[in-house]
Specification:
The protein is of the alpha+beta class. Helix content is 29%, strand content 26%. The chain starts with 5 loop residues before the first helix and ends with a strand.
């Protein structure tokens, strides 16, 4: 007894099983575009005479024939395949004409097979035409009791017409349906121009055409799919806006993407409305009926329909992606095909079918002509033929004598013996001769097809044109040229200027900048935010909705959000706690907020700590921040991060201390770039009790500016005093020194809270610990020397102090 290893046997068995699933179940044949179960269903209906122009038959009758003769699997699997072939929302051109309940686009199941009736659709007849003329190969069925066609002699490129989907072992196929007219136009072009490119073919076959309509973006994904066999296209449902009385509007969905369950989509929309992820919808109804889909969303007064529509595309299956994977069986092997290859193999199939059909017809015509030649000889010698027959003892003798006398074949002699006497009339004789002449013409034509490639192409072309004329329908899916990127929330939210406020206890909110009106210097301000007792505003930033908000913490970590992710609140709202947006650790606080539009590798973040340490790191190191945050800077014991600034190589930095000193040095020359996991270098030497409160980025060219109102450093103290000083009065030094006097500190002014570079046309917004906001034009603030206390900018209530301030400059956003 021979021995085999388990490993080899498992490999062999698994490969055989895989091939069986690929070829025998899941992957369609490139020639007729059918899987075995669909092919067997159509052939069983053909054998039953279940044609489109005859009476319907029970589905159970068809299913029984299929599983009994050709497909020994479960009846439910066969019936499910039969049902799908009859569903107009599943097949672009259904191959089965069903009568009864065959399910719905809501996912409802079809009625039991004993209740439904079917017959072949008219188009299905074109799959089986000429099958009796030995046009295809036949193979034994599962028990070798019958033969079944290995492929159908289909006249239509069904692999692309109705598409296909299936999962095999280690591979899958997902081919979208297309429009029959476009497919035939492309096929005819390939027939006449075998060297054409895929781009030439896409001039005819522009995009898939789904039975449910909707819109499709014919972008790079589709081009990739047609060129390589794999790609992804985006499908969007059709949405219209209807106007009603009282200036109210409704969004009406009339078409949904292919293979989307309508009922599930409506449930998803309702859930989003209930969860307030989609706001502004007052009512949702599904008014779909037998005439088509109609899903209505009534909008609240003042709601912008485009925002709701974009939300539906973003969050619901109203927009889906279809992953194209054109895998098909070619010569009993699975292959990934591009558009040209699919049409090429279909044309090869049609060529083979027509050649086999022509050989079959030629053999029959020649056989009939052979018989007619014998009959013609007999009619020309009818008296002698009759005499021979009468004088013969039996039929075999008569046949032999006729063959010897007139040189006839056995078949011709038998035809003469079988000829009826009525054929001896003059009319019947003329009919025989006319039939003979017509057969000679047919024989000549059949031989021309077999011997002349141009004639063969003409036959293929004529048949395809007939199919196009008879069966094509208008395109249903609208083709859109530009394939958009994935919808982001920026598509739903205007990029308006906003103010971000963050309190000491961690309450954050976003308020439109327009709610704060400009006031004159010395005004009392307006109520800006409602904080809890003992809380105060800690960070204050003007930005816009589409920018990134970087939250740097006292522990040296950074968290990243989009500005629009901060909940919007009114001027008086307290906001939400920052812990609802980022996962802060115990005792961790937000030290500073910084907003950027994009992360530029030529720009840097400069970190400043309470004890005067500075570090410069490239921005792109912080572009991808995970939701749990990342380490931004290493801190020494007892130190904490207080501020981050955005700088470039040519910038200079001015560090401002609480006790009124400042030091200016070059970023590039004094602070070399470092990685994220570093502590930095010493920026300023602090006196006891002093600490750094602000870092100001300076353009070196500002020092040479002589334009009035340009190149000023604005310093603001805790008690609401401020001053502008020309930046040229702050000489450049080496880092690590004590610096120069920046502002004269007195009990009236209080310590410095911060500073920034301003121009005369700018405005500033100040926030007090008493929850007041004032907006001031910079030009109203006096320009004075370094060692001065400045002027009063805001009148303080008892116990109030300046909690934060920020600059308002058109087309430029900075944070403090």
């Amino acid at each position: 007894m021979s021995q085999i290893t388990i490993e080899n046997e498992i490999k062999k068995s698994y490969l055989e099983y895989s091939l069986s699933v690929i070829i025998g179940r899941a992957i369609p044949d490139v020639r007729d575009g059918l899987k075995p179960v669909h092919r067997r269903i159509l052939y069983a209906m053909y054998e039953l005479g279940n044609y489109y122009n005859r009476a319907y038959k029970k589905s159970a009758r068809v299913v029984g024939d299929v599983i009994g003769k050709y497909h020994p699997h479960g009846d439910s699997a066969v019936y499910d395949a039969l049902v799908r072939m009859a569903q107009e929302f599943s097949m672009r051109d259904p191959l089965v004409d069903g009568q009864g309940n065959f399910g719905s686009i809501d996912g409802d199941s079809a009625a039991a097979m004993r209740y439904t009736e079917v017959r072949m659709a008219r188009l299905a007849g074109e799959f089986l035409g000429d099958i009796e003329k030995q046009t295809v190969e036949w193979r034994p069925n599962y028990d070798n009791s019958l033969n079944e066609p290995a492929v159908l002699p289909a006249k239509v490129p069904n692999l692309l017409l109705n598409g296909s989907s299936g999962i095999a072992v280690g591979m899958a196929t997902n081919i979208p349906p297309h429009n029959l007219a476009e497919l035939i136009d492309g096929t005819l072009y390939l027939l006449d121009n075998p060297a054409c490119t895929i781009n030439d073919l896409t001039g005819f076959i522009k995009a898939p055409d789904f039975p449910t309509g909707a819109s499709l973006y014919a972008g790079k994904g589709l081009r990739d799919a047609y060129a390589s066999g794999r790609g992804t296209v985006r499908i969007r449902g059709t949405v219209n806006v209807e106007d009603h009385k009282n200036h109210r509007q409704s969004i009406v969905i009339t078409e949904i993407p292919y293979a989307v369950n309508k009922s599930s989509m409506v449930e998803k929309i309702a859930q989003l409305i209930n969860d307030k992820r989609i706001e502004g919808v007052s009512d949702l109804r599904d008014e779909s009926d037998r005439n088509g889909i109609r899903i209505v969303l009534d909008l609240k007064k003042g709601t912008i329909p485009d925002i709701i529509t974009n939300s539906l595309y973003k969050y619901t299956p109203l927009q889906t992606s279809f992953g194209i994977n054109m895998m098909a069986v070619v010569d009993n092997r699975p292959m990934l095909l591009n558009l040209k290859q699919v049409l090429y193999y279909f044309l090869l199939h049609r060529r083979e079918v027509i050649l086999r059909r022509t050989r079959f017809d030629l053999e029959k015509a020649e056989a009939r002509a052979h018989i007619l030649e014998g009959l013609r000889i007999a009619l020309d010698n009818i008296d002698e033929v009759v005499s021979i027959i009468r004088s013969s003892a039996n039929a075999p003798e008569a046949k032999t004598r006729l063959m010897e006398r007139f040189g006839l074949s056995d078949i011709q002699s038998q035809a003469i013996l079988d000829m009826r006497l009525q054929r001896l009339t003059g009319l019947e004789r003329e009919k025989l001769m006319e039939e003979y002449r017509e057969l000679l013409k047919k024989i000549e034509y059949f031989k021309s097809i077999l011997n002349n490639e141009d004639v063969l192409k003409g036959v293929i072309r004529e048949e395809l044109q007939d199919i196009r004329t008879t069966y094509t329908t208008p395109r249903r899916t609208v083709i859109l040229d530009n394939d958009p990127d994935d919808i982001d929330l920026e598509d739903l939210i205007a990029d308006d200027d906003v103010v971000i406020t963050l309190s000491k206890r961690g309450y954050i909110k976003r308020v439109p900048l327009e709610v704060y009106h400009q006031q004159r210097r010395g005004g009392k301000g307006i109520a800006g935010v409602q904080t809890s007792e003992g809380d105060l505003i800690h960070n204050f930033c003007t930005t816009s909705n589409h920018q990134y908000l970087l939250l740097f913490t006292s522990f040296g970590k950074v968290y990243q959000l989009k500005v629009h992710q901060v909940p919007e609140g009114s001027r008086y709202a307290k906001g939400v706690h920052i812990a609802n947006l980022v996962p802060l650790e115990k005792d961790e606080e937000i030290a500073t907020a910084l907003t950027v539009r994009e992360f530029d590798h030529n720009k840097f973040f400069l970190f400043v700590t309470r004890k005067g340490m500075v570090k410069r790191s490239a921005e792109d190191l912080y572009a991808n921040v995970r939701s749990s945050g990342i380490k931004a800077v290493n801190l020494r014991d007892g130190d904490e991060l207080i501020m981050v600034r955005e700088v470039s190589n040519d910038d200079q930095l001015v560090l401002i201390t609480r006790d009124g000193t400042a030091i200016r040095f070059s970023c590039k020359g004094e602070v070399r770039p470092m990685g994220r996991g570093t502590a930095g270098v010493k920026g300023v030497a602090l006196r006891d009790g002093d600490r750094v409160v602000s870092a100001v980025v300076v353009d070196p060219d500002d020092q040479e500016k002589q334009v009035p109102g340009k190149g000023h450093l604005l310093s603001i103290s805790e008690n609401g005093y401020g001053k502008r000083t020309l930046i040229k009065h702050y000489r450049e030094q080496s880092r690590g020194g004590r610096g120069v006097i920046n502002m004269k500190i007195t009990p009236k002014t209080g310590p410095v809270v911060g500073a920034m570079m301003v121009d005369g046309d700018d405005e500033i917004v100040m926030m007090t610990s008493g929850n007041k906001v004032i907006r001031i034009a910079v030009k109203e603030i006096s320009v004075v020397g370094r060692a001065t206390q400045g002027v009063r900018l805001v009148s303080m209530d008892n116990g109030d102090r300046v909690a934060g301030f920020d600059l308002i400059r058109e087309n430029e956003i900075d944070c403090d």
